[in-house]
Description:
Blueprint: E1 2-5, E2 14-18, E3 24-26, H1 31-42, E4 45-46, E5 49-55, E6 61-66, E7 70-71, H2 75-82, E8 86-88, E9 96-98, E10 108-110
Parallel strand pairs: 5-8
Antiparallel strand pairs: 1-2, 2-3, 4-7, 5-6, 6-10, 9-10
Amino acid sequence: xxxLVCIVCPKGCRLHVDEENDYAxxxxxxxxxxxxxxxxxxxxxxxxxxxxxxxxxxxxxxPVKTDAAVPKGKLLEVMKLFNDVExxxxxxxxxxxxxxxLGTGAxxxxxxxx
Length: 114
C-alpha cells in the first residue's frame, strides 16, 4: 500500500492507495482526491514550467509552461528541448512555442506578454 498526500486542494488529505486491490484509494475527502491517488500511482503527470531564451526585447528569458500535464518520465526530455528554443520579442500569453511536445498532446505556451 502506498501513502500519498493529495495536492488537489489545500486540505492535504493523506491517501492510501492499495495497488493489490485495483488501486483503491482511501483517506480522501472528495472524489478528486481518489482520482488523484489512482492516477499518481498508475501514471504520474506534471505541468512543467520553465523559461526559454528571448531576444529583441527588454528581457532575456521568457516564462513558458505546458498547457496540460505530461508524463513524469518525459519531463527531462521536454526540458532538454527548451535549450534549443529562442523566441523573438514580442510574445503573447498563450502563444504556442512547441506544439504537441514529444507526442504528449500538451503544447508549450508563453505565460507572460513580453
